[in-house]
Amino acid sequence: MIQRKQSIWLLLATIILTLAFILPYGINKVDSPTPLETMLSAKNNIILMILTIVAAATSFFSIFLYKNRKQQMNFTFIPILLAIGMIGFEIYNTYMTQVGNKMVVGLYGSNLIIGIFLPVVAIILIAMAYNGVKSDEKLIRDTDRLR
Question: SS3 sequence, the chain?
Fold first, then answer.
């Protein structure tokens, strides 16, 4: 049955991870004769782009594993690990790589910069989906035991 609560959580996590691909998580200020600011997002870095796309795809694909709950439980760990990797790489990219990179949260000029929080929200949603799949599996085991 695809209309379970965990399917909704996984779909929301997919949407959030897709937004993490689009929304910036920081800025890059280049001090030159003409100051230049660019927004840091997953589109700017190939490693972060791959992490984001694979995390969104695996969370979407795990929706359709509803017939095999054990495999779905195992498969939901992949986007969690990838989202943790996204957070780590974003922090590394803003603080360790270039001097001009800064992590910004909120409104900066006319841009909304909340990209660092989106993987955290996706991790929470995927964990909620994992708990839903786990409770379904427990319910099925309990009913099989009663037969």
Answer: CCCCHHHHHHHHHHHHHHHHHHCCCEEEEECCCCCEEEEECHHHCHHHHHHHHHHHHHHHHHHHHCCCHHHHHHHCHHHHHHHHHHHHHHHHHHHHHCCCEEECCEEECCEEECCCCHHHHHHHHHHHHHHHHHHHHHHHHHHHHHC
* pTM: predicted TM-score of the whole model, two decimal places: 0.82
Read off the tokens for 14.
Answer: 């997919």
Strand order in the sheet with 26-30: 36-40, 26-30, 101-103
With a cut of 90, say whether residue 43 has pLDDT above it.
no
Q: By residue range, what is the domain housing residue 96? A: 5-29+37-146
If you average pLDDT over residues 25-42, what whole number do you get? 67
| Mean predicted confidence (pLDDT) in 64-92 | 88
What distance in Å separates the CA atoms of residue 108 and residue 18, rounded to the nearest whole number?
Answer: 21
The number of distinct structural domains making up the chain is: 1
Q: By mean pLDDT, which of 34-38, 56-60, 71-75, 135-139 is the weakest?
A: 34-38
